[in-house]
Amino acid sequence: MENNQEADSFVDVSFLKKLIVAIGEVSEITGVPTRKIRYWEEKGIITSDHDGEGTTRRFDYINIKKIILINELLKEGFTLDAAARKVKNQIQQLNAEFQKLENHS
């Protein structure tokens, strides 16, 4: 039980749900250049929240996590498309499992 409480103190879920970060900060956090982040968005791999052409792109926690995971897979030798598919499938599986858990509550 103590380990679960300790782990919970490292994650502020309410903060993560509100987290919106500008593209420059995302680049600093992830180590992925802004140009590459824009390209991944153009391909539909990630999505940003921005008001239109010329405005700053902002990314939520889920998209930041996707960027980190995809970048790790690229370093392991995956192609961009294969890495994006793998991350998308993992997220879909997690969502399905969480949905099952929620339905059993």
By secondary-structure content and strand pairing, the structural class works out as mainly alpha
The level of helicity is 55-70%
Distance between the termini: 20 Å
Low-confidence stretches: none
In N-to-C order, the SSE pattern is HHEHHEHH
Number of helical segments? 6
Most strands sheet: 2 strands, antiparallel
Domain HTH merR-type: 23-89
Keywords: DNA-binding, Repressor, Transcription, Transcription regulation
Protein name: MerR family transcriptional regulator
InterPro entries: DNA-bd_dom_put_sf, MerR-type_HTH_dom, MerR_fam
Describe this entry's structure for a reader:
The protein has helices at 2-8, 13-18, 23-30, 34-42, 61-75, 80-104; strands at 20-22, 58-60. It has 105 residues and is mostly helical. α5 packs across α6 (80-104). The longest helix is centred in the C-terminal third of the chain and has 25 residues, at 80-104. The chain is globular, with a radius of gyration of 16 Å. The chain starts with a helix and ends with a helix. The model has no long low-confidence stretch (mean pLDDT 86). Residues 23-89 form the HTH merR-type domain. Pfam families: MerR_1.
